[in-house]
Every structure is written in structure tokens, then in C-alpha cells.
Amino acid sequence: xxxxxxxxxxxxxxxxxxxxxxxxxxxxxxxxxxxxxxxxxxxxxxxxxxxxxxxxxxxxxxxxxxxxxxxxxxxxxxxxxxxxxxxxxxxxxxxxxxxxxxxxxxxxxxxxxxxxxxxxxxxxxxxxxxxxxxxxxxxxxxxxxxxxxxxxxxxxxxxxxxxxxxxxxxxxxxxxxxxxxxxxxxxxxxxxxxxxxxxxxxxxxxxxxxxxxxxxxxxxxxxxxxxxxxxxxxxxxxxxxxxxxxxxxxxxxxxxxxxxxxxxxxxxxxxxxxxxxxxxxxxxxxxxxxxxxxxxxxxxxxxxxxxxxxxxxxxxxxxxxxxxxxxxxxxxxxxxxxxxxxxxxxxxxxxxxxxxxxxxxxxxxxxxxxxxxxxxxxxxxxxxxxxxxxxxxxxxxxxxxxxxxxxxxxxxxxxxxxxxxxxxxxxxxxxxxxx
Length: 435
Known about the structure:
This protein is an alpha+beta fold. It is 51% helix and 20% strand. Among the domains are: 85-166, no CATH class; 213-303, Roll (Pdz3 Domain), CATH 2.30.42.10. It has helices at 2-31, 76-81, 104-108, 117-125, 135-146, 152-162, 179-206, 226-230, 249-257, 308-329, 333-339, 343-356, 358-375, 384-397, 403-434; strands spanning 36-53, 56-71, 90-91, 96-97, 210-221, 237-241, 244-245, 265-271, 274-280, 283-287, 290-294, 297-304. Strand 3 (90-91) and strand 4 form a beta hairpin.
């Protein structure tokens, strides 16, 4: 039963966090006058169509994770050219696309098999790096369309291509908006994730309460560290260390930190109705320039409710501390490996936190929301930070990137994200295997 509850928590937490993130993009796009075609809860095939409001279709889809918002004009071709429909006709032999925006209805009446490679090559040679017809190309295609050797099918195709000259982009498309508005729409997603996490912290202060002073219970054990290897588990309460009775978490941490000699600690643990002795050798680390002993577990905390003003003050401190901690991880390669986790790791954390109560789920959700906001600002194409990087390049050189340039950037981003995904999954599975 607990696993079913944990699965529901997992789906619910990730979905809420992603929807909050996408809502940031959505509201910013609307405020900037952009057309939003779709706002969906979950991914995959549409299960329920909730309705259409102000041109936006709201759906519930089949794969119960996250969600997305589809802003018109954000496809790779559209971003650089402002063309909503790209050419679907390509020479299968030459494997070339005529990168010209064509009318969808015109394409319905054209058989790609009846277009010669010579005609495809002529179209391909008539467009510039930005995917638009050149003046010389227009004249060449007009002459080709009038040629006696050109078939009726090819004439239709050439007319559709030439008709793109009269194309007027929709002013509500993302690609037609000023650079600063596009940057705001992209940044709004990570910003909303950070704001949502912050507001969760503040809201918890006046409702469920927030963790305050640490106590002598174990909230989480770190994989591969002495505590985990010895058999300590989340929920254990440490009642004595080397015969010294433990009253609170601060006393516990102080005793462990002072254990810098190569001698094991004799720890007495209360687990359910029994007391279990352990002998654990601490490992040595450096904190603030000082050597300390560590066992590799996160202590629990006492929870306390605050007034509204105190909750915001507490939320400010936790927000700054958490964001600084996430950023600091990236400065230490070893910590990236130890702290980076994917769906499996997140599911494990949510499972452990769910056993301790809904307030722990809320706290985990708030911290994950901050992580989502920070990680999305990494300048890798595909992520929001990558989109901002491409916009910055556009601003510096004062012209939009071509379709090919956007594709190359996105393929690079996909490669990096793919490698990160493999690394994260390997990390998660390695932890499971060791466990």
C-alpha cells in the first residue's frame, strides 16, 4: 500500500512542479500577446479535451508525468523564419528538403514522386541560408515553371514555392515578437519554478510548519557512506554514542564531528521497539577549513509553525541557502556525481519522505522545484538556458539564427541531454545495486 501511495506522490509532485514551470511560460506568452495553442497536463495521446479558451486548447494526456505548453512559432524552422508550415516535399533520392514555407492545402495536391530531382535541386539552389527565396532564385523558378519540359505536377509545386513570397507571418507568433519579449517568455519558466518553491516554503511556515533545530533521528542515509554500509536506516533514533546519552541533534552532530581519530564510534539506535548497537568508523571531511568526522546521514528536524511575517523571513533564508547549495554542487565534480539523480532517485526520496508524512512531501516538492528552476537555466540548447543563450547570440550579432544553425544547436543539446540521461540512470541503478 505504501508503494502505491508513494507512486501517487511521485506522479503528483512531478506533475505539479512541471505544470507550475510551464504555467510561467504560458502566462508570460499571453502577456506578450503570443498565441498559445495547447496547454496539457501529462504527455502522450490526448485522453480528455477539457475545452478551448482564448484560442488555447486544454488537455489531459496519457503519460502521467509533467505537462507542456505549446507556443505558436517556437519550432526550429519557425524561430528563424517565421513560417508556420514547412515544405513536406523532399526528394527521396537526393535526400534534400526545400526549406521553404508552403501552403498546406497546396501540398495536398502534389505527389512528391512526380517531382524530378532537377526541380528539387532548382528550388534548393534558390533559397538562402535563412530559408528564404533569393531575388535571383525567384526569377529562375519563374522561368522553370514556364518551361515546356516542366510537368503539370512540377508547375503546381513551383507555384506553391513562389507563393511563399507573399507570405505574411502571424504577428502573434513567438518568432515575430521582439527579442526581449521572447527572452521573458523563456525565463518565465525557471523563474516560476523558483517562485513556486519559495512560496511553498513560506506557505508551509504558517500551515504544516518548517523544520527548525535538528534532532537525533535519521532522516536520510547517504548511499555508499559508513552509516548506510553499517545498516542505519531512515527513521532510526540515535540514543547513545560511546556510552554518552544523546538529548538532541546538536549534541549528536558535535560528537560525530569531533571524531576525527581513526577509531569507530559505538552507536546505540532505537528502531521501533528495540535498541540495536552499531560500531561505525567515521570518514574525515573538511568543513570551513576544519577537519570533521562524518557518518553519512542527514539528521531529522523538529517542525515549528510561524507567523506570516516569520514564515516569509524563514522562506527567504531557506530559499537562499538551497539555491546556493544547488549552485555549489556544480563547482565540485565529485559532488555532481554523488548528488545527481534521475527519476529513480527522486522516486526513492519521495518514498522515504512520504513515510514520514505529507509535510515532508511538501518540503521535498519545494526543494525539487528550486532544483528544476536552477537546472533549466544551464545553457544547453533544449533547456531554457540554452534558448536564452541562442537569444543572446542573436542579440550580439543582430540577426536571427538560420534554421540550420538552430538545428545544429538543438542536436548538440539533445546529445548532451542524452548523455546526461544515461549518466543519471547509470548513477541511479548503481545506487540501487549497491543498496
